Amino acid sequence: MKYAFAQARLAERVHEALVKAHLGGEVLIGHISRDGTAIEAREKPISKAQEKPIVKKHLRGRPKKGEIRIAATSKIEQQRSQPLAQVLAELPKACDRGSKCNAQGYKMSWNGYKLHIDTADCGVPISALLTSASVHDSLTAVSLGLITLSRVTNCYDLMDAAYCSEEIREHSRSLGHVPLIDHNPRRGEKKPFAPHEAQRYKERTQAERMNARLKDEFGGNNVWVRGPAKVMSHLMFGLLVLTADQLMRLLI
């Protein structure tokens, strides 16, 4: 029965309908906070040889006479020109090993997956994607932005320094949003937010609160199923109940 629910994406479809019914239409959301959180799994991670196909490296040196080389494009730039279904299909979803810095700045590693979530400033999760643990947060920004756009209308996209990319900023603007992304200095000088931007960026704490509630109250820390389909189904049932709980709090 669990596998049937997972294959039919039942929890994801009900969550989408719930979000559209209560926050879609003429409702205007101020801020969407985007973040990825670690999901530990009780399964063996795939090896690096299985995870990544062999890709021919870019040729070095000057091109030969008559040789035409196509300029390399970034993965995010490629995603922007692809249909959403293709972008989602190409995101790795197998269990592997990942690492990232937590909210306190300490590096952590785990075996399993990573759940990427868009959270509204009212604390309701709008959309979510599951990927392999090693997938960088920035590679889900394009797809999450498109999914969220199909469900709600928002003004600002709030992201941390992991999403610091001009392509992501341009994509956010193309959707009619204002991107507020923490600057990643990359060994250079960090560019601070303007005072009014810094005040708006504080709303991003909603993403951390939502991640904590999912793990502590709605089963995110107790994933006992295996495989990305079942893991996503387990997490989405938790997100579905969290969404209903948060909407009830807004009505009280």
How would you explain this protein's 3D organization?
It is a single chain. The protein is an alpha/beta fold and 252 residues long. Helices cover 40% and strands 21% of the residues. The chain has ten helices and six strands. The protein has helices spanning 2-8, 10-23, 48-51, 75-80, 84-90, 141-149, 166-174, 195-201, 205-217, 228-251; strands spanning 28-40, 96-101, 107-120, 125-132, 153-159, 178-181. Strands 1, 2, 3, 4, 5 and 6 form a six-stranded mixed beta sheet that branches. β2 (96-101) and β3 form a beta hairpin. α1 crosses α10 (228-251) and α2 (10-23) runs parallel beside α10. The longest helix is centred in the last third of the chain and has 24 residues, at 228-251. The chain starts with a helix and ends with a helix.
